[in-house]
Amino acid sequence: MRILGIESSCDETAAAVVDSEGVVRSSVVASQLDVHGKYGGVVPELASREHLRAIVVVVRDALAQAEARLEDLAAIAVTEGPGLVGSLLVGITYAKALAFAADKPLIAVNHLEGHIHAAVLEARRRGQPVEFPALALVVSGGHTHLYAVQEDFRYRLLGRTRDDAAGEAYDKVAKLLGFGYPGGPTLDRLAPFGDPERFRFSLAKMKGNALDFSFSGLKTAVLRWVEARELAGEIQARRELLRGGGRPGLEAWLRATPQETLDLIACFQRTVIEELMRRVRVSAAEIGARAILITGGVAGNAGLRETAARAIAGVPVHFPTPELSTDNAAMIAAAAFPKLLRGERAGFELTAKANLGL
Ligand code: KG4
Ligand code: ZN
C-alpha cells in the first residue's frame, strides 16, 4: 500500500511516496533557499509563487522515482497547517485536484505530526521501532513543542515556546552576527571551535507551565553582548562573504570570525541545548517515556544529537536522517497511514489552517 504525500507549508515544495512497511520509495524536495536567502528570511508572496512553479514537476518526479502511478496509490496526503496560508494552499489545491481526478481518498496531515513521523520512519528503517508512550520534541524554525505520543498516534501537548522557536533564535543570532540565513547550520558547524564555558547566559525561568520554553531572553542577552563590543568590522566582513548569494565554506567563516565570537557561538549553542534537554528529561520522566523522538530542522544540530544520545539512561533517542529532519513530504505520507487505517478522510472543502495546533 502506498501513499503520496505533498508538503508546501513554508519554503520547501515536496512530494514523496511511502509504503505501509515504512519504506520511503521517493522523496523529492525543491528548496527555495536561493530565493529567500538574500532577504534574510522567507518572503511569503515569493514562497507561494515558487510553490506554484515547482509543484507539478515535484509531484511528477516523486511518482516517477517511486515507479508509482496515480491509480496504484492508496491515498493522497497533504499538509493542512500550520504554515503560510498562501504556500499551504498550493499543496492543498493540487492534492485535492489529484484526489478528485484519480478518485483517491484525501488525507489532511498536521505539519508537526509529520515531523514526529520522520523520527518514527527512521527508527523503523533501523529495525528499532519506537516504543510507547514516547516523548516527542519538535524543534524547527517555527516550533519548539513537546508532546506525549501514544501508540495510536494521539498527542498531548506538554510544553511549547512562548516566544521564539529554537531555530528562530539561531536564525536571529546568526543574522545579528552577519552569518546570513538560515543561520542554524552555520552556527552549529562553528560551535565546536569555541569554548562553551567562557560566557554564562542565564536559563529561562518559566512562570506557570515549567515545560514551556522561552528563547527571547537569550536572544536579547546575545544582542547586549554584541552591543558591548566593537564587532562592526568583523560583522561587515562576514556580510561581504555572503555578497552575491555566496555560500562560504567552514574555512572562510573561521577566517572571518575571531576566537571571542566563536566562544560566544559555542556558549549560545550550549545554552539552547541545555534549555531543550532540561525539559526533555523532566517530561520524559513525568510520562514514563519508553522512547524520545527529536525532530524538525534543529534536530540536525550536531551538538544536540550528541547531548541527547546520552541524556537519559535506558531510553532510546530517535532522530530522523538529516534529509528527513528538515521539511519533506515523506513524513506527511507516513503520518497519513494511521489516519487511513482509522478511516479519517478530508473533504474537498479542506483549506489551509495557518495556526493549526496538534
Ligand atoms: O523544519 P525546518 O526545515 O522548517 C521549519 O518548519 O521551520 O527548520 C528550519 C530551521 C531553521 O531555523 C534553521 O536555522 C534550523 O532549522 N536549523 C538548525 C540546524 N539545521 C537547521 N538549527 C541549528 N542547528 C542546525 N544544524
Ligand atoms: Zn517543518
Characterise the protein shown here.
This protein is an alpha/beta fold and 358 residues long. It has 2 domains: 134 residues, ATPase, nucleotide binding domain (Nucleotidyltransferase, domain 5), CATH 3.30.420.40; 184 residues, ATPase, nucleotide binding domain (Nucleotidyltransferase, domain 5, 2-Layer Sandwich), CATH 3.30.420.40. The chain is built from 13 helices and 10 strands. The strands form 2 sheets. Strands 3-2-1-4-5 form a 5-stranded mixed β-sheet, sandwiched between helices. α5 packs parallel to α7 and α10 packs across α11. The radius of gyration is 20 Å and the shape is globular. The mean pLDDT is 95.
Radius of gyration: 20 Å
CATH class of the largest domain: Alpha Beta
Strand order in space, largest sheet: 3-2-1-4-5
Indicate the structural class: alpha/beta
Overall number of structural domains: 2
Contiguous uncertain segments of 5+ residues: none
Specify the overall morphology. globular
DSSP strand tally = 10
CATH architecture of the largest domain: 2-Layer Sandwich
Q: N- to C-terminal separation?
A: 26 Å
Order of helices and strands: EEEHHEHEHEEEHHHHHHEHEHH
